Amino acid sequence: MNATEGSNFYIPMSNATGVVRSPHEYPQYYLAEPWVFSLITIYMFFLILIGIPVNLFTLCVTVQHKNLRTPIYYILVNMAMADLLVIVVSFPFAMHAAMHGYFVHGMVGCNFEGFFTVHATQISVWSLVVLAVERAMVSSQPSMDIRFRRRFVIKGIAFSWLMAFSCSLPPLFEWSRYIPEGLQCSCGVDFYTLKPDIFNESYINYMFAVHLVVPLTIIILCFSRLLCVFNNEELDKIERDANCVAVTLTLGFFMYWLPYASIGWHIFTNQGSAFSPFAMTLTSFFAKSSVLFSPLICVCLDKQLRRGMIITLCLGKNPFPDDMGASKTEASSGSSSSVAPA
């Protein structure tokens, strides 16, 4: 046996020597040296310290500037809200647990942390689906009515929250469960056991099929459509830039989350096989980094968002008049054609 399973935990280490203890009650320093947990604590503190102002500032700038109140930015605001949700609510639990070397908050805290992490992640996943569909629609029909696009995106945002609840709520009602994972200082869905009494196998299959394969398939189909109309002369530069932002943002998000999903699927489909708790922790905390780098991708690639941030930081003054002049020309051209700037 390569693991030790308890009523509310699964540790990928044999208890032949008797050193394995509940991650809700005892430090897990037999899984890794104390300095590793200290490093995780510092990293989580860094994500909280930088992630909150970056996402909050992105949210505030988007709301303040009228020229950013377009469908594509509605989706970015929704993703920033999801990032703030997980940073403010979930990350402190993981940081505090890493400080002590085990999940000190018990099962209630584990459910709380796991729920908000999964929920915020799924909001981002389905927001990217809405973004991909919106981009494919606009690229296929550049003259599409802006009001129709707004209604579509608003309904899509509501849909993203509904789909997020359909993934994050079941483990709280005994269809699967949230348990400590990796080095046992953060919680996630139980990939490790079949657990017939809570139908864990069916939930994991449902989660991967509906909340990973389906979104990826839709996104790939939509982006394939973007490639087909890439040279469409009716599509202006602003919309092409918006497509570039959408594709880069999506690729960046899945670059952070797919390693975690892949190792989770491997563990689930190879029940009882040996795996490194450090590898699970590494992919898990790498995935959490998306809350910081997703908004940074938008800032680096999106001229209007970056310009709005500069103007806000400079108290309404523009220190780069030449760039602004060119930008105004682009913005006015985008406004006249009723398309979303980027």
UniProtKB/TrEMBL annotation:
<keyword id="KW-0600">Photoreceptor protein</keyword>
<feature type="domain" description="G-protein coupled receptors family 1 profile">
    <location>
        <begin position="54"/>
        <end position="298"/>
    </location>
</feature>
<feature type="transmembrane region" description="Helical">
    <location>
        <begin position="35"/>
        <end position="60"/>
    </location>
</feature>
<dbReference type="GO" id="GO:0007601">
    <property type="term" value="P:visual perception"/>
</dbReference>
<keyword id="KW-0807">Transducer</keyword>
<protein>
    <recommendedName>
        <fullName>Rhodopsin</fullName>
    </recommendedName>
</protein>
<dbReference type="GO" id="GO:0007602">
    <property type="term" value="P:phototransduction"/>
</dbReference>
<keyword id="KW-0472">Membrane</keyword>
<keyword id="KW-0844">Vision</keyword>
<feature type="transmembrane region" description="Helical">
    <location>
        <begin position="72"/>
        <end position="94"/>
    </location>
</feature>
<dbReference type="InterPro" id="IPR000732">
    <property type="entry name" value="Rhodopsin"/>
</dbReference>
<dbReference type="Pfam" id="PF00001">
    <property type="entry name" value="7tm_1"/>
</dbReference>
<dbReference type="GO" id="GO:0016020">
    <property type="term" value="C:membrane"/>
</dbReference>
<feature type="transmembrane region" description="Helical">
    <location>
        <begin position="203"/>
        <end position="230"/>
    </location>
</feature>
<keyword id="KW-1133">Transmembrane helix</keyword>
<keyword id="KW-1015">Disulfide bond</keyword>
<keyword id="KW-0862">Zinc</keyword>
<feature type="transmembrane region" description="Helical">
    <location>
        <begin position="278"/>
        <end position="301"/>
    </location>
</feature>
<keyword id="KW-0325">Glycoprotein</keyword>
<dbReference type="GO" id="GO:0009881">
    <property type="term" value="F:photoreceptor activity"/>
</dbReference>
<feature type="transmembrane region" description="Helical">
    <location>
        <begin position="114"/>
        <end position="133"/>
    </location>
</feature>
<keyword id="KW-0597">Phosphoprotein</keyword>
<dbReference type="InterPro" id="IPR000276">
    <property type="entry name" value="GPCR_Rhodpsn"/>
</dbReference>
<feature type="transmembrane region" description="Helical">
    <location>
        <begin position="242"/>
        <end position="258"/>
    </location>
</feature>
<dbReference type="GO" id="GO:0004930">
    <property type="term" value="F:G protein-coupled receptor activity"/>
</dbReference>
<dbReference type="InterPro" id="IPR017452">
    <property type="entry name" value="GPCR_Rhodpsn_7TM"/>
</dbReference>
<dbReference type="InterPro" id="IPR001760">
    <property type="entry name" value="Opsin"/>
</dbReference>
<keyword id="KW-0812">Transmembrane</keyword>
<feature type="modified residue" description="N6-(retinylidene)lysine">
    <location>
        <position position="288"/>
    </location>
</feature>
<comment type="similarity">
    <text>Belongs to the G-protein coupled receptor 1 family. Opsin subfamily.</text>
</comment>
<feature type="glycosylation site" description="N-linked (GlcNAc...) asparagine">
    <location>
        <position position="2"/>
    </location>
</feature>
<feature type="lipid moiety-binding region" description="S-palmitoyl cysteine">
    <location>
        <position position="314"/>
    </location>
</feature>
<dbReference type="GO" id="GO:0046872">
    <property type="term" value="F:metal ion binding"/>
</dbReference>
<feature type="glycosylation site" description="N-linked (GlcNAc...) asparagine">
    <location>
        <position position="15"/>
    </location>
</feature>
<keyword id="KW-0157">Chromophore</keyword>
<feature type="transmembrane region" description="Helical">
    <location>
        <begin position="153"/>
        <end position="173"/>
    </location>
</feature>
<dbReference type="Pfam" id="PF10413">
    <property type="entry name" value="Rhodopsin_N"/>
</dbReference>
<dbReference type="InterPro" id="IPR050125">
    <property type="entry name" value="GPCR_opsins"/>
</dbReference>
<feature type="binding site">
    <location>
        <position position="271"/>
    </location>
    <ligand>
        <name>Zn(2+)</name>
    </ligand>
</feature>
<keyword id="KW-0449">Lipoprotein</keyword>
<dbReference type="InterPro" id="IPR019477">
    <property type="entry name" value="Rhodopsin_N"/>
</dbReference>
<keyword id="KW-0479">Metal-binding</keyword>
